[in-house]
Amino acid sequence: MTEINSVTTLTRDGDVAIVTLNSPPVNALSANVRDGLYEGFKQAIDSDAKAIVLICDGRTFIAGADITEFGGAMKGASLPEVQATMENSPKPVVAAIHGTALGGGLEVALCAHYRVAVPSAKLGLPEVALGLLPGAGGTQRLPRIAGVEKALEMVTSGRHAPAKEALEMGLVDELVEEGQLKEGAIAFARKIVAEGKPLVKVRENNTKLEEAKGKPEIFAEFRKKNARKFRGFDAPEANIKCIEAAVNAASFEEGLAEERKLFMQLMTGQQSAAQRYYFFAERQANKIPDVPDDTPVREVKKVGVLGAGTMGGGIAMNFLNVGIPVTIVELKQDALDRGLATIRKNYERSRGAVPEQTEKRMSLLTGSLTMDDFADCDLIIEAVFERMDIKKDVFGKLDQIAKPGAILATNTSYLNIDEIASATKRPQDVIGLHFFSPANVMKLLEVIRADHTGKDVIATSMKLAKKIGKVAVLAGVCPGFIGNRMLSQRQREANKLVLEGAMPWDIDRVLYDFGFPMGPFAMSDLAGLDIGWVKENSKGETLRDVLCEMDRRGQKTGAGFYDYDENRTAKPSPVTEKIIQDFRASKGINARTISDEEILERCVYPMINEGAKILEEGKAIRPSDIDVVWVNGYGWPVYRGGPMFYGDQVGADKVLAKMKEFQGSMGDDFKPSALLEKLVSEGKKFSDLKA
Ligand code: 3HC
Ligand code: NAI
Question: Does 206 share its domain with 143?
Fold first, then answer.
């Protein structure tokens, strides 16, 4: 064995040389890895071996460029040098793939002459998710193998294709048995040599590109079809342009040069900076300073859900989906029947629904009218009405019924979980698991740590969240926790802006253009204006009261802030406009013209300020956790990183100055947080704050 460097070895199996990488956690292409590959291949080529296999130790093949190196000075061998060495090797090079071959990792594999993989492997070019494009020839080689349409879909979705599909696409030449990758790859390499197979260079194969030449409609249609999905993002269009270049360029090199140029544009832009930041933010959120990775966890083999309403049903589905049995309890038979029927309907209507799978999941679900059936559950999640008296009553009962060590969770949106926990004799077992609606779809889970919540309960909740496919963020007890607490700032300002002179659709447009999927008023119409509205108590005091009293309760009644046609397309409503004008007149308000800039600043800066208060009070561990909440739970555009990242991009000093200006003219809704003041006085950013 030759040790090439600290992460690379060169070994021999008879006449086959084996270059092995071992750079945990994911064999990313850091300088060390590139050096190791470059030197390893050179020595293998210079040896008397007849073929070369590239394989990785650990959990995966190369998962891409090392994202932490981006933006820094280039050291060591360059990726193109490594790729050229492999591709120009006079003896066949075989890449042996397990885990994931992603981004630069797949681009390296595409410079091998052949690729073999185990069935569980996945291959993809996910750069788009980082606001980038495959910058090492991926956009030029993939369409040469998979064809233009498939390549467009792969690079703009960033999807990881399973090995079987990769085989069909021609990305992989042969599947080898699970656990036998090395042996399989060596045998394959010997076969290539024995049969005198050619040294296939993907770059030289233009057949599939020829098929797309002179057909600009392929690209036009693809853009049109995906316009909504790509709205606001720079990277998808740049990816498409690269594939277009592959088809239209006079040579491979010319296409490559275009790819390089567009890659550098994205790399130095604000969107990719935000998306790369976000990649690490999501992973950071799992790290809780006083709950280390090795904290013991409790076993969760059976889950109880109390309440089969909007949230309870969706919450149950998350566990059924991963094979964990659920008992769901309601007050009355009809509510239970409705809840169970909704779950079934959601399964049947979900994309790619398979009847057997629906039945399998439903068979894990038991409905009941008594909490006694929670006795054998390891985790019980309460999702009943949002009232403290009811929650305390329920937790008092759960305390009697649940087995020792069971985790008792509440899905409350605003209530004080310490108070809820006080209804039990086991506050160490009580935690908040705040799902978002629809709970079977939304990725975010706010995990709420109360005063006495046990560390093992926190660790268990964070791990379980991952298991059910959620992105979990730990928050402390405060009204609305992280997300809703900040949302109420935006909502308050949006409502005030309408009174002052803006129309709901002006505000919605500004926030939509900023990148949110919809503005607050369109959102209210979708959710229903009558959530929490009680007819008997309604005295026309707010705009919402008036609209609800007129039976304009949102999309479901065909009108709310907007008017809706039969396709539920929203139109600004003259009725609403008149109501607003009358409302202003009744309050003696003279409407003024409000600029888009003011709308944005009024809606967003108080959120950033509230985020700072949340940090100052220790209710969030770090600024990036807040950003993860907003991107996953509220549609904050990921290409703007999240509210705290955006605050840094705008500049904490500028946010503070505006808050002070607004405070001066409009009062203490804009009182700056002490932390924001401190950051500015010290010339720091939110990103300078440590957990
Ligand atoms: N660079 C640097 N660090 C990386 C990394 C990368 N490409 N990919 C993963 N990591 C780190 C993570 O930050 C994490 O670190 P931590 O333990 O300190 O938090 C650790 O590796 C493990 O990652 P995950 O927690 O995500 O592990 P999973 O097993 O859940 O997922 C994965 C593994 C599917 C490989 C996932 O990490 C992933 O999707 N990685 C990014 C892949 C990617 O985007 N590649 C393209 C990079 S850009 C590129 O290649 C440009 C080229 O075209 C020139
Ligand atoms: P919902 O009204 O749709 O459902 C509540 C269900 O609980 C009803 O079916 C009711 O019959 C049942 N219920 C009430 N008391 C019960 C008891 N003692 N035993 C058994 N069942 C009982 O309410 P929704 O929207 O599902 O909200 C539930 C909780 O989730 C609330 O705390 C709410 O704040 C929270 N939440 C709601 C979100 C939403 O968007 N709807 C989002 C996140 C949290």
Answer: yes
